[in-house]
Write a structure and sequence with these properties.
This protein is α+β, with helices and mostly antiparallel strands. 19% of the residues lie in helices and 34% in strands.
């Protein structure tokens, strides 16, 4: 069975709107539970993760990329450096 061009177009259009989770994990930070429970808006949580060290980016819970963190227009962005 061959797929019609219309069916292929419909499938691609449908898949282009699928949302999925994208996440990253920084190096672990030792912290007391009481400190975490007392975090307030505006508090800063310092990590030991160097900005020079790539982070793993997971798509749908699976590590897919290595990226460097950066900031553009006051927004955190990731530049993919390795697949």
């Amino acid at each position: 069975d061959k797929t019609t061009p219309e069916a292929t177009h419909f499938l691609l259009r449908t898949l282009s709107s699928v949302r999925f989770g994208v996440s990253t994990e920084l190096d672990r930070v030792p912290a007391a539970v009481s400190d975490l429970m007392n975090l307030q808006i505006g508090d800063v949580l310092r990590t030991n993760h160097s900005v020079e060290k790539p982070v793993n980016i997971a798509v749908g819970g699976v590590n897919k990329f290595h990226a460097r963190l950066a900031s553009i227009d006051h927004k955190l962005v990731s530049q993919i450096v390795e697949h």
